[in-house]
Write a structure and sequence with these properties.
heterodimer; A: alpha/beta; Rossmann fold; eight-stranded mixed β-sheet; B: mainly alpha
Chain lengths: ~700, ~325
């Protein structure tokens, strides 16, 4: 069967037996009203026993579709051609019944969103036991016992009891562990993991990746990891296949991909990720444009319109996946050999944009005016209970004493895991009302003293950009109206609004003619630019950015981050930048505040936080982030936190982090522990303008 | 969970009280039963009229609210008052009729729900295939047709069947029973008479349940957990039945409670046109005879039925969906 392989096929290693999975010239197309969508266009790869192959690509690159084709789980509207051989058996010739014998036993799959991927009406234990009983002839009670063993293996505490829980009673990380348990229930030879950690917080992502490694060791299975996160790839994969527009554009060992990329798209991807381990701040290298529509692709290389080094040949013929100068390294680029000869890197191929120096940069921080000040901000939500008379039985202390300030021209990054109170904090600020406890001062005015009219006027100085660019723009309004709305509210004259709308569109890199189009006609990155333009409509002083780039693909994300940087310098803006992605924060923030369970546990300059993290939580958070650098990843010591974020209804006494703290668990003696559990640590100064809420704060280098 | 049900029961009981009270007050304000006795020949003595109305708590010179208070006091002691014509209490009339209505409603609802779910599930799984098109077009036609027309069409078909079977009494189209029957003959007679009206109610129920079930099932068909179930090694069909249908039934439970009222209206027409002496027909007759007590009592009965179906759907919801159990 191996005679049919094209030249692009990497030769199987001599020492191993025949490949486990051989995908040859796989194409998948869907019929749609607009025509045929070619989601996967002739992909060839092999997976050897025990190996980990990562498939990397942005949304719409065909990485998930090609794997679903392997599992035979595509909807009936898909047309699949080519060949998929698993242990020599042609999967495409099998019917559903025959395939179902292989699914779950020979090949298994882990899906992205573990909440929707588990049936809500059956217990976790039953769902795992079901997987056991489909393929093994065991009794119900034996299968149930096996389910408990598997839950134990993936690190679910108290597995006997938790097997009886329903999916909604599990946290996201625990659900993904259960999903892994299910996938290894029948000792598969190949596990396909489709974005297994994308929906999870970084600390949980680190835990889950660890479990995935353990599961791999326990079953000795080969793994196909599908992801968009190059950091995860660096520490996890043996070989990498980069996909673009339904095709494999580069395959190589993980080190080669990161250190010797030969295809401009791969180089662009690497250049556009904000790096946590790079100290000096320079603009990211975005890839201009957007991925092509897979409907009626023009001839030539699909990356050509975005490629800065494209030549005439690129417009004429689409390059095949050809050998490069390096062993078992293939790239689909007409100029790959030239790239190798000239030793081009991302910075040479792509143009690194320049960002103007901020006006405020020269002035010392203390001399700049304060634009936002929070003093001991509290926000609690009551929990009510009772059949007829509803009484308050407790409260969720979402924000529990937050103090911070932002000065003109500066960006404060607010980071923390989901549920730590970031969003509640910014919603309290945006409300412009008197908080339950504490003070909010915006541009020198206490919100408690504002009258309704003042509040409306103040809204022009304070604006917000939301996370989801799809949901935050009204789909029934042309974007001109979307941009004009804040100006209508402030009763600006019509002529001025019109001029300003055009100006705004130009400012964010769109054309004024776009004003009459609807949001659906724009891509995700463009929509986020519209969201930013709307926030800037009234020339605000302070912009709150709530995870503004987390819904975007990396190549698009870089452009938006650069835009934000540029606008800040040009307009003298101050940002409150809320994010869970610390690499983005490192790139954009001047100061960083780390939140945990409604409190700030560490605050300081970006340099302090990333180079001299002092709070154990900050250290764990930083160490959990995978670096897009295979060598660093291999040598890094990772601090793994145990368990999930405690519920804010039941905050641990004393230091709220003590229940998950590795310093507390491993390094402190009984007296010191008693102090942690009884005394709530305040923000101890570590350095000028750097504070950490830990009795035993100590600098550790983790990046 | 018990607490939750107890709270729902309290809410429902309040609703039953309000519905029944409103029915009584509205009826007693508008009915004017005294007009029944006007212009009779020979004329009825005024004292007799007064006496009769007084016994029925319908004297026109007593304020409505006082009458209501009196009636409420009686209801609290299990007395729904006397019928307007004759000397019987309303409750003995109810006793005769409840069974008639319940057997029609029971079979109609259960069959309607079962067929509705089946048609909906099959329609979703075979979306846009002939089965689905027939189901969809059929149910929209039924939904768009007035109940009365459906009843007449069904009756016509059964008359045709009777004629062609050579036995004119095979499926009798009027009345709910034949007197003086015993044993097997008794049950056969009841059964034969049940067929046509039950079909009407089943058609009504199935047509709207199937629409709702179809969309619920379509939602589930695209869900990730069905894909997971197949990735575990279940075939498409096994995954659909084990993981799909049960989840798709959950939203139906709420719908069931709300739509039951619709079915009650349908049953009223059905009873009336098939000449069944049930509660629906009784309601129409008592409105015609201006019998406040009877109207209020029938309203109370239907309200209690809605209460029971509501409680039942709450319980089924909790049985199907673990996410609501913990509340």
């Amino acid at each position: 069967m191996s005679q049919t392989f094209s030249a692009a096929e990497p030769a199987p290693p001599a020492d191993s037996t025949s490949p486990l999975l051989e995908v040859h010239d796989l194409s998948v197309s869907f019929r749609s009203e607009a025509g045929q969508v070619n989601a996967v266009r002739g992909v060839t790869y092999t997976v050897n026993p025990g190996e980990t192959v990562a498939i990397v690509g942005e949304s719409g690159s065909g990485k998930s579709v090609s794997s679903l084709a392997v599992m035979g789980l595509l909807p009936s509207s898909a047309t699949v051609t080519g060949s998929i051989r698993f242990k020599g058996q042609d999967l495409l010739s099998l019917n559903d019944r025959q395939l179902s014998k292989l699914r779950g036993s020979g090949l298994s799959m882990i899906f992205q969103d573990p909440l929707s991927a588990l049936t809500p009406v059956y217990t976790i234990g039953d769902q795992i036991a079901e997987a056991v009983r489909i393929h093994q002839d065991v009794s119900k009670s034996q299968a149930a016992r096996r389910a408990v063993e598997l839950l134990d293996l993936v690190g679910i505490p108290n597995p006997q009891l938790r097997a009886g829980s329903f999916p909604h009673e599990f946290s996201g990380g625990m659900r993904q562990r259960a999903m892994i348990a299910m996938s290894i229930a029948n000792d598969p030879d190949l596990i396909i993991a489709d974005e297994p950690t994308t929906a999870l917080d970084v600390t949980i992502q680190a835990q889950v990746l660890d479990v995935l490694k353990k599961a791999k060791e326990a079953t000795n299975a080969a793994t196909v990891l599908i992801t968009h996160d190059l950091g995860v790839v660096a520490g996890f994969a043996d070989r990498v296949m980069v996909m673009y527009a339904g095709k494999a554009v580069e395959t190589a060992t993980v080190d080669d991909i990161f250190y010797h990329p030969r295809m401009p798209y791969t180089m662009g991807l690497l250049g556009s990720i904000p790096r946590m381990d790079v100290e000096e701040k320079e603009p990211l290298i975005p890839i201009e444009g957007t991925p092509p529509s897979l409907l009626n692709l023009p001839p030539g290389c699909p990356f050509e319109p975005r490629c800065p080094i494209a030549v005439e040949q690129c417009r004429q013929t689409e390059p095949g996946l050809d050998p490069t100068d390096r062993d078992s390294h293939f790239a689909a680029c007409h100029r790959s050999l030239e790239i190798a000869q000239r030793q081009w890197s991302a910075a040479d191929v792509f143009v690194r944009p320049t960002v103007p120096e901020a006006a405020a940069a020269g002035i010392a921080r203390e001399e700049r005016p304060v634009v936002l000040q929070l003093q001991d901000l509290h926000r609690a939500f009551p929990i009510r209970k009772g059949a007829v008379i509803r009484r308050t039985v407790g409260s969720v202390r979402a924000v529990d004493g937050v103090s911070l300030d932002i000065r003109e021209g500066e960006t404060l990054g607010l980071v923390g895991e989901s549920g730590c109170g970031k969003t509640t904090t910014i919603m309290e600020i945006m409300n412009l009302l008197k908080p339950q406890q504490g003070r909010i001062v915006v541009l020198g005015q206490d919100t408690a003293s504002l009258k309704p009219d003042d509040r409306r006027t103040m809204r022009s100085d304070l604006s917000i950009v939301f996370q989801d660019p799809m949901a935050s723009l009204d789909p029934r309004m042309p974007i001109g109206d979307i941009l004009a709305e804040p100006m209508w509210v402030q009763k600006m004259p019509d002529a001025k609004i019109k001029a300003r709308t055009a100006e705004l569109l130009k400012m964010v890199g769109l054309s004024p003619e776009h004003a009459s189009r609807y949001p659906a006609e724009f891509s995700g990155g463009q929509r986020q630019r519209i969201g930013i333009a709307r926030a800037l409509a009234l020339d605000p002083k302070l912009v709150v950015l709530d995870e503004p780039v987390s819904a975007l693909d990396v190549s698009i994300q870089a452009g938006v981050i650069n835009l934000l940087d540029e606008l800040k310098s040009r307009m003298g803006l101050s940002y409150l930048f809320v994010a869970h992605d610390l690499s983005v924060i490192r790139h954009i923030a001047d100061r960083v505040a780390v939140m945990y369970l409604g409190r700030i546990v560490e605050i300081g300059t970006s340099k302090d936080i990333f180079d001299r993290p002092s709070h154990p939580y900050t250290q764990a958070l930083l160490s959990a982030i995978p670096l897009p650098d295979p060598e660093k990843e291999r040598t890094r010591q990772r601090i793994l936190l145990t368990g999930d974020l405690p519920s804010p209804t039941d905050v641990p006494s004393g230091c709220r982090f003590s229940s998950r703290c590795f310093v507390f668990a491993e390094q402190l003696d009984a007296d010191q522990r008693a102090r942690c559990q009884s005394e709530d640590p305040g923000l101890y100064p570590m350095n000028a303008d750097h504070g950490a809420a830990c009795h035993f704060a100590q600098v550790r280098e983790v990046v | 969970m018990l607490k939750f049900l107890a709270r729902r029961l309290v809410n429902y009981l309040i609703l039953v009280f309000i519905a029944t009270s409103l029915a009584y007050i509205l009826a007693s304000m508008t009915f004017h039963p005294e007009n029944r006795y006007l212009g009779r020949n020979p004329p009825i003595p005024a004292s007799t009229i007064e006496q009769t109305l007084k016994e029925r708590n319908a004297a026109p010179d007593t304020p409505v609210l006082v009458r209501y208070g009196h009636w409420l006091n009686g209801v609290a002691h299990g007395d729904f008052g006397k019928v307007i014509q004759g000397e019987e209490p309303v409750s003995s009339e109810l006793k005769r009729r409840i069974g008639v209505s319940l057997r029609l409603l029971f079979f109609g609802t259960v069959l309607g729900a079962v067929f509705g779910v089946l048609i909906g599930v099959v329609g979703a799984v075979r979306q846009r295939k002939p089965v689905d098109v027939v189901g969809t077009v059929g149910s929209y036609i039924l939904l768009a047709t007035p109940t009365v027309v459906i009843i007449i069409v069904v009756q016509t078909i059964f008359v045709w069947i009777n004629r062609h079977s050579g036995n004119a009494g095979l499926f009798p189209q009027t009345g709910e029973y034949t007197s003086n029957l015993h044993g097997l003959a008794f049950w056969l007679d009841r059964g034969r008479r049940l067929v046509a009206p039950t079909i009407v109610l089943t058609l009504l129920g199935a047509s709207f349940y199937s629409r709702y079930q179809r969309s619920a099932m379509l939602d589930v068909l695209g869900s990730d957990f069905l894909r997971t179930a197949r990735a575990k090694g279940l075939t498409r069909q096994q995954a659909l039945f084990k993981h799909g249908v049960r989840t798709a039934l959950i939203p139906m439970m709420t719908f069931f409670a709300y739509s039951f009222g619709l079915l009650l209206t349908g049953a009223t027409f059905t009873e009336s046109l098939f000449g069944w002496n049930g509660m629906g027909k009784y309601l129409i007759e008592s409105v015609q005879s201006r019998d406040t007590n009877a109207v209020a009592a029938v309203t109370c009965f239907t309200a209690v039925l809605v209460l029971l179906s509501g409680m039942l759907s709450d319980i089924l919801y909790a049985a199907l969906d673990p996410r609501v159990r913990s509340r």
